[in-house]
Amino acid sequence: MSATNRVLAGPSGDCCFTGFRHEGTPIGNKITIANVPTYFVEGSSSKGDSEAKRRILIFLADVYGPFYQNNMLLQDFLAQNGFTVLGIDYFMGDPVHLHDNEQGFDRSKWMEKSHDSAREVLPKWWEAVTAKYGKEKLNIAGRAQSSNELVSMHTGYCFGARYTMQLSDDDAIVAAALAHPAFLNEEHFRNIKKPLMLSCAETDHTFPLQSRRIAEDILVERKAQYFFQVFSGVAHGFASRSDPSSPDGRWGKEQSAHGIALWFHRFIDESFQSGRKEI
Question: Which residue among 188, 236, 265, 269 is the active-site one?
Fold first, then answer.
């Protein structure tokens, strides 16, 4: 394969700024880590809350930010499936939906400012997270070797995909997941060193079929550990802002979230394998 660095997941388009608001009552809280607003929801699971509290899932939101209703509900769901979730607000209180119907709003300038902000605050925020929850090198299966060891996964939606891929270099990260990603080049896939899941839409002008197949070719060539799930009848944004009245949209959103939770459990939970029933 040639050593090109083509764009595979393009910049945010109109599809990244539209969607449906979901109903529900978030259960998390707003906290501050390294002076960065953070959505926090403590994990719980049938296997014991102490384990769930130690399993940190980093949520890297789309342009709507971690405090948008849909994203809070999504983080709550992941927490209820065995993870303590931390959603960094790299927009620093300025998500895009606050500018809905704003006269003269310049989306491109907002996007540039937001990437500048993310590049600035994410490293210090992540350093504070690892200091707070402990950081030791994980073994290959991602299982903790001591009580103060950080067991961390991270998932990025659209805008958050680039930072998910970059954060994957850290030894504390066990596995990563993306949903309808944006802002990715070939090199992001060549450099990935952790298991990677991609939750994709059949119709996605940001990460279209041709790009998805190139990404898969790269992962195969690199002998990476990966998993694609692709949903028909949905478009970019389905995993967080799908139409709840659409059977395809509702199915895709729910199965994407379930799939991401199971993907992470595969690498951190010994009983996930031992407790499975063979077909």
Answer: 236
Within 26-168, residue ranges assigned H as helices are 49-54, 69-80, 107-133, 161-167
Which is the catalytic residue, given 158, 188, 200, 269? 158
Whole-number Cα distances in Å, 181 to 12, 158, 171, 232: 9, 4, 23, 17
**Cα three-residue angle 165-171-176, rounded to 5 degrees:** 35
What does pTM read for this prediction?
0.89
**Is 236 among the residues known to form the active site?**
yes
76-92 residue pLDDT tens: 999 999 999 999 999 99
**Cα–Cα distance, 29 to 52 (Å, whole number):** 17
Taking only Cα atoms into account, the Rg of the chain, rounded to an integer number of angstroms, comes to 18
Is 204 noted as a catalytic residue in this protein?
A: yes
Among the options 62, 76, 89, 204, which is catalytic?
204
What CA–CA distances, in Å, run from 154 to 24, 43, 204, 235, 245?
A: 24, 14, 22, 23, 29
What type of residue sits at position 218? I
Per DSSP, helices labelled H in the chain are 49-54, 69-80, 107-133, 161-167, 186-190, 209-221, 238-241, 247-268, 270-274
Compare 52 and 273 and report the one with higher pLDDT.
Answer: 52
Buried (b) or exposed (e) across 183-203, using 16+ Cβ within 10 A?
A: bbbbebbbebebbbbbbbbee
Is residue 158 part of the annotated active site? The answer reads yes
Largest CA distance in the chain: 58
Cβ neighbours, 10 Å, residue 3: 7
